Amino acid sequence: MREGEYVVLKLERYVSMPQHAQGGFDHGDVYLGNGFVYVAHTAAGTVEVVDGIKGILQKTISGCPEASGVVCAQVEGLVFAASRGTGKVLVIHAVKGTLSKTIQVGSKPNGMAWDDDHGVLMVADVADIHARLVDPERGEVLKASRLPGRPRWCKYSAYLDRFVINLRDPAGYVTLSPRNGEVSSVIPIKASGPHGLDLSTDGREAYIACDGGAVIAMDLEKGIETCRAKIPGEPDVTWLNPRRKFLYCALPKPGLLVTIDLVEMKVMQQLKTEEGAGTFAFDQSRQRLYSFLPKSCRVATYIES
Fold first, then answer.
1. Measured between alpha carbons, how far is 220 from 8 in angstroms, rounded to an integer?
2. Which of 51, 86, 89, 191 counts the highest number of beta carbons within 10 A?
3. 109 with 122: CB under 8 angstroms?
4. Tens digit of pLDDT for each residue in 129-185?
């Protein structure tokens, strides 16, 4: 720990994962009902299910080549996992960890966001640069919308009643209607490579982690920057802890997990994880964070101090 830093997260334990020769993990999410952690195991073409409470690998779900995005629909009890290798989304029963169905959604689905107001899944494709609205119950694509740049991560804002989609280039984001797929003009961001994204609980503010070494807070209603914090490298996944007003951000090189105080907009803690560890998931109910370590094939579990 560096001088002046606070202890925010403490290592609780490691959970061993199935081995892979090379590659790693992608996005993960936590089903809050039972604490199951679902993570895309890109290198293995699977979705791993970790019981976060017991600290064990619960099961492995096969059939997800080039596994990428994972997102939980908490109320509906569903988990969605994107397979870039097949152009499909797997629909998984969150409690049982069983595959319910697959849906063809394009060529290389990656980022996803769930709209629990309308029951619509938005899937961003990094090959054909489209966003697709999907009805998981019917297993159908409702609408496909061309995006003005390569999409990265995305979230649904209940306040705007629109999806927020980061774009790598041009550096900015767009919003998209869950009803008709209408895409806004690009809202520019004054930093290169918007990547990780999370929203405030009320959906009014976005926290965008950028390759240019900054986390930028954006007022979504006005489309303007409100403040920013410097971070020591290029980020990947970002998660908000609304209870403590912290933002966690993973930096795969050199392998850091950074905690940002959103009140003071400064880094509070830097934890060494593992080189290449750019993804993690956060359990807001239990205040546990799960960092996915690609070289040692483990999950590091951290608890709030």
1. 28
2. 89
3. no
4. 999 999 999 999 999 999 999 999 999 999 999 999 999 999 999 999 999 999 999
